[in-house]
Amino acid sequence: MTTPRTKNPVPAWLENPYPRVEHSLISFPAKHILQVTINREQYMNCLPVEATIELGALWKWYDAEPELRCAVFTGAGKKAFCAGMDLKQRLDLIKTNDVAHDYPHGGFAGMSNRTGKKPIVVACNGHAHGGGFEAILNADVIFASPNATFALPEVLRGVSALAGALPRAMLLFGNHRTMDLILTGRRMSVEEAVSWGLVKEIVPQEQLLERAIAYAVEIAEKSPDSVIISRLAAREAWETGVSRATMRGQEIYSEAMLRSRNAAEGLAAYREKRDPKWLPSYL
Fold it and tell me: What CDD domains does the annotation carry (predicted)?
């Protein structure tokens, strides 16, 4: 039994086939381990809405599959883990006034606001910007290549990181470091990410995935019930505050932001490779 876009056949020890995916590669590098690779290298692994919906369903399947114990999440190529949402698609939605499909409850990549049951280890193989950084902020353990950078550049595009990153960054980094990142949109180097406690290890690109898989195997060797319960218990304080803050941010600000003239201008400037010409704010 195989599924489209797999690297290898689905192993016999799985009870149920995984949901169909078109934008990622699915593989099983070791017993109990799921590997998910965003397969949009030519687009810096940015995700259209459809890809996020796919991943939301995939992570739910992963949590429900009894023999899976740990997942490794990475991107194709050596330049980017994920450059965020497909901003060109977002601009088209604004221009046509079409309604985008709702993101899954887990948020961007099905992960930025995910609670879930089981751990996700990230092998960050390059840039993690925008939604890519939002997903990483909610990962369980992160390994990164030397060329990895992290950024929330939404203020440069006329939008905002409302998929979970803002309250999570505040809890992880504190007020002043968070404001430095989100008000300038600057890039954080991988060395700075280590010093801030975000990245566990910097690993050479050619060894990155192997290191992340070996770490996932180490987790999978432990009691799966203990891993699930320990993870959820540790995240309890995080979830009760962050999820509500994310929901309120979306309820209060999201529609106004996306319908603003500055959002359209920022996204158009990105597509046209020019500096944006900002308009007065009437929010």
Answer: crotonase-like
67 is catalytic: no
Q: What is the DSSP letter of 13?
A: T
Q: Is 154 an active-site residue?
A: yes
What's the pLDDT at 243? 78
Among residues 67, 154, 201, 221, the one annotated as catalytic is 154
Please say whether the beta carbons of 125 and 145 come within 8 A. Answer: yes
Q: Phi and psi dihedrals of 47, rounded to 5? A: -115, 125
Compute the distance between CA of residue 201 and CA of residue 127 in angstroms, rounded to an integer: 16
Tokens describing residue 166: 């803002």
Residue 95: its pLDDT value, please?
55
In angstroms, rounded to a whole number, what is the distance separating the alpha carbons of residues 148 and 57? 27
Residues in CB range of 75: below 8 A, 6 or more apart: 37, 38, 41, 45, 81, 82, 125, 126
Would strands 149-151 and 120-124 be described as parallel, antiparallel, or unpaired?
unpaired
pTM of the shown model: 0.86
**Class of domain 24-205+220-272 (CATH, top level):** alpha beta
| CA angle, 89 then 95 then 97, to 5° | 95
**pLDDT beneath 70: ranges in the chain:** 1-8, 86-104, 282-283
What SS3 class is residue 280? Answer: coil
d(CA 156, CA 269) in angstroms, rounded, equals 10
| DSSP 8-state symbol, 38 | E
> Residue 97 is which amino acid?
N
Pick the catalytic residue from 54, 134, 210, 236.
134
**Cβ atoms 91, 271 nearer than 8 A:** yes
Supply the pLDDT for residue 66.
93
Token couple for 175: 């007020």
